[in-house]
Amino acid sequence: MDDQLASRIEVKALTLSYGNDVVLDALSLPIPKGQITVLAGPNGCGKSTLLRAIRRLHAPQSGQVLLDAEDISKLNGKALGRKIGLLAQSPSAPQDMTVEELVRLGRYPHQAMLQPWSPGDDAAVAAAMAGTGVDTMKHRRIGSLSGGQLQRAWIAMVLAQETDTICLDEPVNHLDMAHQLDCLELVTKLNKEQGRTIVLVLHDLNLAARYADQLVFVAGGKVRERGAPEAMMRADLIAEVFSVNAEIITDPVHQRPICIPHRRA
């Protein structure tokens, strides 16, 4: 298999429960290296839990997550933090923290007790802020930022980790259309220009189809189907997974499929 298409992450028969509620049910999923994988599905289907399990924030009852063929359970926390970055839904930090202070938190996995802050840390923070366009507001308090500015600052923090894999859980949630596009274009730039492996959770199917290399439909704690957006955006599959009758047309600008929902199936 070509290295660029090899699985960066391999989720194998992962089962995870909250009490008696099974959230992930023997779920398996390859996540290709150097591609954008988008997870989509109805509320409560396990998308966010899967993303957090990939970052080892939830311990599964069975199964495993492999990173470059190595079980992530064998990595210590900082070692994993140098390989996979995660921006969860609705992150929080003290409102009087500056943008630069927030972004500097991304260097935590690279710090050691006897290892002082280095020029390399400064360079990583500066590059992350410049890449997300928040370098001009580095001294501003995060409580003074707009929603789009704040989201870019959080993404900059993840970038400062300098991980090859970035997981983002609903990064465009609560953003207007312009800031949604800004955020996803930034993510695409990181993928195309830097070769980062990106895993996104998105609710908007049309954004998912526009930006995904691999689109994954999750339902009932399992992967219902995965593939290129052109293969996944089918009326029968959307009716089955989302319980919505829809028409699928082609975006005349980007030549990607668009879902036009009609009514509940």
Automatic annotation (TrEMBL):
<dbReference type="InterPro" id="IPR003439">
    <property type="entry name" value="ABC_transporter-like_ATP-bd"/>
</dbReference>
<keyword id="KW-0472">Membrane</keyword>
<dbReference type="InterPro" id="IPR027417">
    <property type="entry name" value="P-loop_NTPase"/>
</dbReference>
<keyword id="KW-0067">ATP-binding</keyword>
<feature type="domain" description="ABC transporter">
    <location>
        <begin position="9"/>
        <end position="245"/>
    </location>
</feature>
<keyword id="KW-1003">Cell membrane</keyword>
<dbReference type="GO" id="GO:0006826">
    <property type="term" value="P:iron ion transport"/>
</dbReference>
<dbReference type="InterPro" id="IPR003593">
    <property type="entry name" value="AAA+_ATPase"/>
</dbReference>
<dbReference type="Pfam" id="PF00005">
    <property type="entry name" value="ABC_tran"/>
</dbReference>
<keyword id="KW-0547">Nucleotide-binding</keyword>
<protein>
    <submittedName>
        <fullName>ABC transporter ATP-binding protein</fullName>
    </submittedName>
</protein>
<keyword id="KW-0406">Ion transport</keyword>
<keyword id="KW-0813">Transport</keyword>
<dbReference type="GO" id="GO:0016887">
    <property type="term" value="F:ATP hydrolysis activity"/>
</dbReference>
<dbReference type="GO" id="GO:0005886">
    <property type="term" value="C:plasma membrane"/>
</dbReference>
<dbReference type="InterPro" id="IPR051535">
    <property type="entry name" value="Siderophore_ABC-ATPase"/>
</dbReference>
<comment type="similarity">
    <text>Belongs to the ABC transporter superfamily.</text>
</comment>
<keyword id="KW-0408">Iron</keyword>
<keyword id="KW-0410">Iron transport</keyword>
<dbReference type="GO" id="GO:0005524">
    <property type="term" value="F:ATP binding"/>
</dbReference>
<dbReference type="InterPro" id="IPR017871">
    <property type="entry name" value="ABC_transporter-like_CS"/>
</dbReference>
